[in-house]
Amino acid sequence: MNKDLLRMDDLSKDEILDILNLADQLKYEQKHGIEHHLLKGKSLGMIFEKASTRTRVSFEVGMYQLGGHPLFLSSKDLQIGRGEPIQDTARVLSRYLDGIMIRTFSQNEIETLAECSSIPIINGLTDDEHPCQVLADLMTIREKKLILEGLKIAYIGDGNNMCNSLIVGCLTLGMNVAIANPIGYKPPKYYIEKGISLAEENGVSFEMTEDPSEAIKKADVIITDVWASMGQETEAKKRQIAFKGYQVNSEIMKLANNDAIVLHCLPAHREEEITEEVLEAHADEIFEEAENRLHAQKAVLVKLLS
Ligand code: CP
Ligand code: NVA
């Protein structure tokens, strides 16, 4: 395995499957009261430059359950908030900690942090990627559908961090991916090219369209995300107009397979990207997905820190 988990393509197919298998095992054992202090004596720094509910709590509880020590580090209170270079922060924190999970804006910043650190760095969301969420999504899909290979995933919405990590993760595991994004909101070129080459390599399909009905046709899994991500709050009004017609609602769901599941990384904006009706009809899947953040990340922590 690479030292770090910065982007979904840091993981090979076998490494993703290893993480999912360990996550399933840790979930089962935790539910049966079996404790694993696999990270006893280890400390994880958790740097947040953006808000979080799930990522913060699941990493913190996950480290505790593994016998380790999590430290919540708000960038507002760290010297990086006052301009200390990320390179120096990396060199200092590498001497105290056994790993860092960071949620920030720029992918370059975490790449620099990783280059200058001697300890593993985990991406807890950047503007470009959300690999921990996608590992939990894959775990949830396999739990609900029992297989991954050959399924059709439809992502409807912004070509953002979630879309990017899903393209790479799902195609790497041999799933067919269809994405529907409005013009001007497609994923960056890197992910489109990566998607095309992964689909070719793995003999699966990667469709890109502006028509959500096209993408969702016969899908097994439907995934969406907010129209305005963290840091894009001032664009919310403009985006509400651009994304009109990209809502996951009961009408469009008729085009998916009858037994399709719906995932949403949360937080959800009801009646924007997803209706209350669809969210509640699929709450079992969506909240299992949220729970699986804990199990999937424990597996990542064990693989990278132990
Ligand atoms: N899905 C997710 O990452 O949630 P938080 O923003 O609450 O961490
Ligand atoms: N795309 C969203 C995901 C939140 C978990 C954001 O970046 O805000």
From TrEMBL:
PROSITE patterns in alphabetical order: CARBAMOYLTRANSFERASE (PS00097)
Catalytic activity as recorded in UniProt: carbamoyl phosphate + L-ornithine = L-citrulline + phosphate + H(+)
Sequence positions that bind L-ornithine: 161, 225, 229-230
Main location: cytoplasm
Domain of life: Bacteria
SUPFAM superfamilies hit by this protein: Aspartate/ornithine carbamoyltransferase
Alphabetical keyword list: Cytoplasm, Transferase
Record localization: Cytoplasm
InterPro entries from the UniProt entry: Asp/Orn_carbamoyltranf_P-bd, Asp/Orn_carbamoylTrfase, Asp/Orn_carbamoylTrfase_sf, Asp_carbamoyltransf_Asp/Orn-bd, Orn/put_carbamltrans, OTCase_ArgI
Major enzyme class: transferase
Gene3D superfamilies, alphabetized: Aspartate/ornithine carbamoyltransferase
Pathway the protein acts in: Amino-acid biosynthesis; L-arginine biosynthesis; L-arginine from L-ornithine and carbamoyl phosphate: step 1/3
Chain residues that bind carbamoyl phosphate: 52-55, 79, 103, 130-133, 265-266, 293
Family stated for the protein in its record: Belongs to the aspartate/ornithine carbamoyltransferase superfamily. OTCase family.
PANTHER family assigned to the protein according to its UniProt record, in alphabetical order: ORNITHINE CARBAMOYLTRANSFERASE, MITOCHONDRIAL, ORNITHINE TRANSCARBAMYLASE, MITOCHONDRIAL
Protein's recorded name: Ornithine carbamoyltransferase
Source organism per UniProt: Clostridium saudiense
